[in-house]
Fold this protein.
Amino acid sequence: MFRNYFLAIIWIILSVSIFFLHGQIISRPLIGHHDLANGLVLTVASIWDKEGFFTYNLAPVYSYTSDIPLKEGFGIRGRDGRMYYVSFPPGVYVIFYVLAKLFFLGIKDTSLRILSLAFFIIDCFLLYRYLSSRYGVFSALVGIGAFSFFPTSAYFLGSHFMYESVILPFWFFSFLCFRKLIFSPYNQKYYLCFFILIFILSFCGFFGLFLTAAIFIMVFFFGRRFSWNIKYRILFLFNLTICGFAPFIITYFLYLGKIDQDVLNNQLFHRFLYRTNMDLFYKNSPSFLDTFYKFYEKLSFHAKISFGDYFPAIFFLAFLILVLAIPFKIKLFRKNEIMPYLFFFLVAPFLHYIILSNHLYEHDFAYLFILFFVTFLFVWSFKTLEEIIRKYWKKAWFSLLTAALIYIFIIPATSTGGYRRYFDEWIYDTPDYPIMLTNMRKNSNEHDLIITNYDSNAMMWYYLQRNVLGKMFGDEVINYKNTYPNIKNIYYMTDTKINAQISCGEREIVNKDLLYICKLN
């Protein structure tokens, strides 16, 4: 009994410390576009309140070209941060909007956050109860872990801000493990290891959560039969590596040769690494990063020459075969653990792709809450799917069909959600730039142009409200100068030192108000 009370006190202390560490996430206004509860949902809901549900005759409304003013003076840009279809198709906005009206909550930040968090907890609990009754506790934890940590590509989980999704998966799974640690007399060392591990990694920032997901899956898949002989140690490291970094590497090759190499390297590699806390460890060791960076350049170059445009397909299919085949080959799973394993690797990307391709999302994480409901309904009929797989998986035609579905659905799922939309809208939509600059020039200094490659920092908004917002992509600075001949000074601004070093080169970098600024002309 004393042991249980002691563990309960430890769990409470650690929970409070994590919430305190990420306290700004819980209390911040819903202004971003990386939330489960999202600021843009409020914008769209307010438009519907004033102008009706079918705004603009179902036509898509872009941020920069819309005539919908907000108090920031930047159109919808001031609320969401990018270009979106904000009118129709409505996607996830409808559910939030209807529920808020139904429960008289009002369309405001607090009610939206409450609804979002409630969806998350309820869905996870239902999925956990169903999977645990059918496949056991281990498989249930693996199942909800997969759909909480890996519903979208690993790039987002490793490099994008997640706000509520940083807190809730951590708390939910730590609670489940804590409960099993107290009440279950079996396998306590595995629960205890994960219980400690997830707290430690949660303190490490977003990259810690990224690794937590991969390690979580490895621990609970291999926990029952994990042995410290060389075979299992190699398998553990092998799976941990590919689960973590394969989607990033795959997408790197998907865009290799299709966009400017400098842009690709900057946006994929550096943002992947430096939006984490890893820069705290390596900020005094640029040689290490340069070596790592050059390795990716060489790898991409040789892969492109050897395989051409087919490399992403070859690479990913090889990765999938290895991940699926090795555990079965050494008989690592019990019978009732096989289906959740397949379920994670095949169904999660499939559902993710369906949601993306049918525009049931706002951006990044706002659509995730609905994924759990879709998943739960799908799992409810899982027995039928399980019987089909068991009956036909050895048939040649079924194997070919499965391979085709994997190629069609999973590869787009690792790219469409992040890079393709990002590059299509920012790099190739240069005709929209003059419109964007015109709309944002109301409060600007007519002689200065500030260029940035990221604009979510609060201090950056302070400067951008007084200046023209541009994008730092090579020779496009000249286009800005031609568009506004009165501009005398062009500055580059960022909130990270590494981005400043990359973009400013040998120019003098000034640190002002936690921002890095250099003059480009």
